[in-house]
């Protein structure tokens, strides 16, 4: 039987907090350039699919991440569809939407539901496993990619093996087991259980019928959300009202634990779910003291540690097994063993209203990014980076005037009914209340320093009059 | 016998590195606002002398620290003389200069050589001890303030007790002992030895005759350096050529270990030399988990630790006995036990040319301060703070233009032969090569954002044409 066409359904809507302060709600871990060459795991996931057996991917993500997802796809040369979830609904709804869309593209298609925040370095082995699992999926099984355990981990769910299937390493899946205690995990290892990686292959029509049987309201919500979806620039916006009817349930609970058609394939590729900082330490190249040092870092008498700094000189003296991550506005110091508790730390900080818990200092926008570099009573200073052809919305402020100094590139600035070009080493003044727009008409990025002066410099004092990126 | 007049000789020229990143060569620990109320130990040392028995202090410091010393004295309302050492020469030369100056002020004076980086909270006990020691000093003894040991420390030198003297707790000092091994330290405790605090009282004339006998070249150099000293604004600049002839030797080696007139008084006050971060943890109020948290700090599962942050949100998860100090450009993470090794870290970073090892991001000047807030190719942004009546030198740059935006206060700006007033929310442009001066003519601090654009934005591209603070 020839391999069916595989349509990747890339799940990129999550918001992991255990890699804080790098991963935050406004820019979660799948989009962070964690890997060599400044690649994100989202990009590495897409690049791993470069093979004729895989059709253009369907990326399912949150509205908030649409521009970063589009930009990262463009940057790594991958074309595909970007589907926007109006709110977070867990994996069953996302996979249902993916199955509906895949089935519309090709009723015989096999869907590959893929996490975008996992690390797999042997792409060839991954593709080969997918093709083999796809053959079983085409025959009506819902296949899970299982990871042969290296140790009795209590951090993963396990897959219980059943009868052998036609592909080597493939078996029926008899039971899903939640994260077990150590004793049970040890027993599972002896009995040939695999770790549940959360990556699945299924014929679109199989998934639709399984959903119809086990989670009909999720399927109904997904179908209606796709039916009433709205094109917005290059994005497909799912209908909010319909999508909201899907319950917040994982595909494991909704389908996998209930279906009679579950199978599993023992992966032949390496795998990490990059759960917390300790796994980053694990996967990165280390020096002679087993340290991973990234950015301006100096250590003495320090071993088995991860030190990562964006910008600030970061130093460690006389400590073993620690994680130190320094960004421009937040520093994390943790014992390697407690790195999973960063999640609790972030929850606690969110509860007490610390903006650093969920927002990055550098804010990405469709036109580029901005970053606060100084703030005081009645003033704020920002560094603004506008991409080639990028333009900010036509806007005005009620409480602040702005001084823009161009330090690189050229700005096209509209102030009320006048348009001027501002070049490197030139400045322009925008009085309170004026209507203005900033555009980069040139061939290199525009960098400017914005000095805001006024009684209130909050981000919400923007009245958007017009926006090419269709933002509200 | 009435108490003689005591002239404090405050030693403030040191450059401790063990409190890095707070203490750096450009702003060493004695001037850092480490104490409650934002006070430095230098200021606390001066305030401790508020008693008619003490004459106006003579502060002996390095040329580099003259403005910060003057400003901190002004801020805490203490008047005194500031004597500038052209280079670092250790304590014998400084005390020799102090003795010469004290003796000129009053031939019968008792000098009190005081470290400016020690912490003593019971000021009344300190003053009372000084007065009692001063009576013995007036009678010809060189008195050391000894600290009754609380434990057999191997970090301090010890004073060996001899015959009792006329004041309670005072004895002849028979021997100075260098930092001992633990066994010896334990033995010293049993035998009534005291820690050497490095604070001395002596009749000026006694010190001069002891120096003449045991270190004549130091005395000669000090006398000539004072003789040929030059008044510069409010400072007394010692003659560089003469001062350079004094050998780099401590007063302990030069005089105390050789004199027949040494005495010691057991201090009745509490004392810390704030040697390293562990002693900061020791002296500060702690929370229920024995943590000292200063600035924006959040910790979970953390005990007996010190977390101090100037600005960035700084977090610790699951660690005990650590020191975390975050400044805007550098982060230190150390085990409490290894905090003394920060000295080695700083040496290593200096050797590899890291500017953060010795320079602060905020640079203090006689007119106020400036701080880099952003830097990139061909540009740099600074926040500049000019004190009331402060003015920068008349200057020009060969490689950069500057844009100044006033965000608070008023600036008087001279550009070539034109002078303009620039108010809040106004800006001024300074083209490359223009001669310019910035002045704060107002009654509140002037805050401005300076955007530099040009091929080179290094601090050494300043041609100073005229300067009210007599800087080169």
UniProtKB/TrEMBL annotation, chains A, B:
Keyword terms of this UniProt record: GTP-binding, Isomerase, Nucleotide-binding, Nucleotidyltransferase, Transferase
Record-linked SUPFAM superfamilies: Nucleotide-diphospho-sugar transferases, RmlC-like cupins
Annotated catalysed reactions: alpha-D-mannose 1-phosphate + GTP + H(+) = GDP-alpha-D-mannose + diphosphate
Pfam families: ManC_GMP_beta-helix, MannoseP_isomer, NTP_transferase
CDD domains linked: cupin_PMI_typeII_C (cd02213), GDP-M1P_Guanylyltransferase (cd02509)
PANTHER family the record matches: MANNOSE-1-PHOSPHATE GUANYLYLTRANSFERASE
Keyword match Nucleotide-binding: yes
Matching Gene3D superfamilies: Jelly Rolls (2.60.120.10), Spore Coat Polysaccharide Biosynthesis Protein SpsA, Chain A (3.90.550.10)
Residue span(s) of domain Nucleotidyl transferase: 8-287
Domain Mannose-6-phosphate isomerase type II C-terminal intervals: 353-467
Family membership noted in the UniProt record: Belongs to the mannose-6-phosphate isomerase type 2 family.
Class of enzymatic activity (EC top level): transferase
Highest taxon of the lineage: Bacteria
Annotated GO MF terms: mannose-1-phosphate guanylyltransferase (GTP) activity; mannose-6-phosphate isomerase activity
InterPro entries for this protein: GMPP_N (IPR049577), Man1P_GuaTrfase/Man6P_Isoase (IPR006375), Man6P_isomerase-2_C (IPR001538), ManC/GMP-like_b-helix (IPR054566), Mannose-6P_isomerase_type2 (IPR051161), NTP_transferase_dom (IPR005835), Nucleotide-diphossugar_trans (IPR029044), RmlC-like_jellyroll (IPR014710)
The EC number(s) this enzyme carries: 2.7.7.13
Name of the protein: mannose-1-phosphate guanylyltransferase
Domain MannoseP isomerase/GMP-like beta-helix: 297-348
């Amino acid at each position: 039987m020839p391999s069916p066409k595989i349509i990747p359904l890339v799940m990129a809507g999550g918001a992991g907090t255990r890699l804080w302060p790098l991963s935050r709600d406004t820019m979660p871990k799948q989009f962070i350039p964690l890997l060599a060459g400044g690649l994100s795991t989202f990009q590495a996931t897409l690049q791993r699919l470069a093979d004729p057996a895989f059709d253009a991917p369907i990326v399912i993500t949150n509205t908030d991440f649409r521009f970063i997802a589009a930009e990262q796809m463009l940057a790594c040369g991958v074309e595909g569809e970007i589907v926007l979830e109006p709110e977070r609904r867990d994996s069953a709804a996302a996979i249902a939407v993916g199955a509906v869309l895949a089935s519309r593209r090709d009723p015989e298609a096999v869907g590959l539901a893929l996490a975008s925040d996992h690390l797999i370095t042997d792409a060839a082995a991954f593709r080969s496993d997918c093709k083999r699992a796809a053959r079983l999926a085409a025959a009506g099984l819902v296949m899970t990619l299982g990871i042969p355990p290296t140790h009795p981990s209590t951090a993963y769910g396990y897959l219980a093996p059943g009868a052998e299937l036609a592909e080597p390493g493939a078996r029926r899946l008899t039971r899903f087991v939640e994260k077990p205690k150590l004793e049970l995990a040890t027993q599972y290892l002896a009995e040939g259980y695999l770790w549940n990686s959360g990556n699945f292959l299924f014929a679109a029509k199989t998934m639709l019928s399984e959903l119809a049987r086990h989670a009909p309201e999720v399927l109904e919500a997904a179908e209606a959300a796709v039916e009433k979806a709205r094109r917005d620039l290059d994005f497909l916006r799912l209908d909010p009202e319909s999508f909201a009817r899907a319950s917040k349930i994982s595909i494991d609970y909704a389908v996998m634990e209930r279906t009679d058609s579950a199978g599993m394939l023992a992966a032949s590729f390496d795998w990490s779910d990059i759960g917390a900082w300790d796994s980053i330490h694990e996967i990165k190249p280390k020096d002679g003291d087993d340290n991973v040092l990234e950015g301006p870092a100096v250590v003495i008498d320090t071993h088995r540690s991860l030190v990562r700094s964006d910008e600030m000189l970061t130093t460690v003296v006389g400590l073993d097994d620690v994680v130190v991550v320094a960004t421009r506005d937040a520093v994390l110091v943790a014992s390697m063993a407690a790195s999973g508790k960063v999640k609790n730390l972030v929850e606690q900080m969110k509860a007490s209203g610390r903006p650093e818990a969920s927002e990055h200092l550098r804010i990405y926008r469709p036109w580029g990014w901005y970053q606060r570099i100084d703030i005081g009573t009645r003033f704020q200073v920002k560094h603004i980076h506008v991409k080639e052809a990028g333009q900010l919305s036509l806007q005005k402020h009620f409480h602040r005037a702005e001084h823009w100094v161009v330090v690189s590139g050229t700005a096209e600035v509209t102030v009320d009914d006048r348009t001027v070009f501002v070049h490197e080493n030139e400045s322009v003044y925008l009085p309170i209340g004026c209507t203005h727009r900033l555009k980069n008409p040139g061939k290199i990025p525009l960098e400017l320093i914005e000095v805001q002066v006024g009684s209130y410099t909050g981000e919400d004092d923007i009245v958007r009059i017009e926006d090419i990126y269709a933002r509200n």
